[in-house]
Amino acid sequence: MTFSERTEPAFSICVYCGSRPGNDAAFADVARHAGEWIGRHGGQLVYGGGRAGLMGVVADATLAAGGSVVGVIPRALVEREHAHRGCTELIVVETMHERKRIMAERSNAFLALPGGIGTFEEFFEAWTWRQLGYHDKPIGLLNQAGYYDAMLAFLRHGVASGFMGAAQMALIEVGDDWRTLLQTLVREAAYPAPTRLDKV
Ligand code: AMP
Q1: Tens digit of each residue's pLDDT (9 = 90 or more) over 15-24
Q2: For residue 52, how many other CB atoms are within 10 A of its CB?
Q3: Which of 23, 134, 151, 185 could form a disulfide with 109 if both were Cys (CB 3.0 to 4.6 A apart)?
Q4: CA of residue 17 to ligand 1 center, whole Å
């Protein structure tokens, strides 16, 4: 395909998810469904560029369904052979900060699937940036099989304890159905809600 024949993706979604598969096959299933949905709808996946765990599953599924995949990975991880070589575009960066900035810039929405500390950190950073007004892109959290129940309970404890407000909770979309959540994020990305920062 020549450059002029390349079409712009319908949307670009940044997915944060585990570099491990987790111990329930439902986690990999949902990563595969999400990737297939993005690819089938002419979307672009932006992610951490790895090939392990759920990261590899969502990237492979997006590619197989005809979507494009932008991987953004620090050089150190490439050297440790963590990079997914099948990415449509693999952006190698020097620092984690640069990586997260590019991942955010290249996408219209963020989705966190189940994962570990890397996923938590990325999700919370996207949320923090939104509450501070650095972006107004929708952010979703997929609570697959109740994986995030305990974290959501703690967030409610943060609200009850006066360290957070209901308006901040309103800046994220939480759902247990991957399809509904993806549809919501893509719709909100196309028609962003008026900023709710005045209430924060
Ligand atoms: P974790 O949830 O701790 O497995 O970390 C996953 C998140 O951190 C992903 O969304 C990636 O952006 C990043 N990450 C962690 N490990 C890797 C890896 N081996 N290769 C690429 N990215 C990774």
Answers
A1: 999 999 999 9
A2: 13
A3: 185
A4: 7
Task: Give CA–CA dist 38/66, Å, rounded.
Answer: 9
Structure-token pair, residue 5:
């024949």
Query: Which residues are registered as beta bridge partners of 173?
Result: 140
- Write out pLDDT tens, residues 69-110: 999 999 999 988 889 999 999 999 999 999 999 999 999 999
Instruction: Name the residue among 10, 178, 12, 187 with its Cα closest to residue 110.
Output: 12
Domain ranges of the chain: 13-189
Q: Which two tokens stand for residue 177?
A: 């159905």
Ligand 1 residue neighbourhood (C-beta within 6 Å) = 16-20, 48-50, 52, 55, 73, 77, 82, 115-119, 122
CA distance 29 to 156: 28
Domain 13-189 fold? Rossmann fold (3.40.50)
Structure tokens at 120: 């938590």
Degrees, nearest 5: CA angle 141-45-6: 155
- Top mutation candidate among 119, 120, 122 for ligand 1, by most atoms within 8 Å of CB: 119
